[in-house]
Amino acid sequence: MKIIKPLSVLLFLSILLVQTASATRIKDIAQLGGVRENQLIGYGLVTGLAGTGDDLQKVLFTRQALYNMMVRQGITVNPTDFAKIKSKNVAAVMVTASLPPFGKAGSTIDIEVASIGDAKNLAGGNLLMTALKGPDGKVYAVAQGPMTVGAFAFGGKAAKAQKNHPTVGRVANGAIIEQTVPVALGHDGVLSYRLRMSDFSTASNMSNAINAAFGKETASPVDSTTVSVVIPDEFKDQPVTFISKLESLDLKVETSARVVINERTGTIVMGQDVRLSTVAVSHGNLSIVIKESADVIQPNPLAPGETVIVPKTTIEVTEDDGELMVVKEGVSISAVADALNAIGATPRDLIAIFQAIKAAGAMQGELVVL
To answer: pLDDT at position 270, please?
Structure first.
């Protein structure tokens, strides 16, 4: 039975993906300029916790926020007496959300809630009304509602049981949009598309595909990232229809020859255009085994002396024979995979081999180390 090694499996899958996705839609590789999400953030309080909230005697900003909330609700509280409260049913949190590009006032969005105090668990808590602001300081949404944590943490002084992360929660549809960010769609009859991966060839291919479908001089590449598109006269009053037709066009995507390695996880990913020049590779494994044991030395019967324990260390060094193998120039990614698999190295060994091949100048591509 033939054993398929992890690297060959990974490269085989990448070949399949390249073969089945030789034509890619514009909407999958480019984004319309100005149409994007906007980040929102707010500071709020979660109440109703079962004694797992912030310690008001230690977390002063939680105590101050609770005091301000009560004053706004018309509750008269003596600051001196309030400072003595020891309730742990409240937690200070930061609330974050993403405002969609065409979200309308009255629509709802999901929110994330994270503790910023010393709360132990947010399970069962209820988020009080929290204003979510943008970078400009304006309020774009208001959040409130019961949280879903998806975790638990219970324990005592001697033991504790915890699953997932109990100090971060989520409220589905927990924020109501109050105002939106205006988007000028097709301003002055021109659209600007930005490639998610910068590449001059892909920008040129995208421009050619658009011109072939809608006429010459409809699109022109500005640089390796931006493609400018002029809305045809027949679609001047229907920009949405034009965008939907444009984004459904297929084109060939050019990719850079790149090898990405992650030594922490032993992961290796190779692009389809990576090539190796003819190079000789030898890689041997060195293993060192250290064993600790103890010898007991005792005096003879009725003889003076003490029993002594003497530590004993045994070191075994084993080094595999390194065979010098010639990796011939690879004309395809599968040929490169076969050549490297023939060395018989593990993924972590291959990481070292790739770095050495790159240093020798035998790799035609970029080596990225994560």
So the answer is: 80
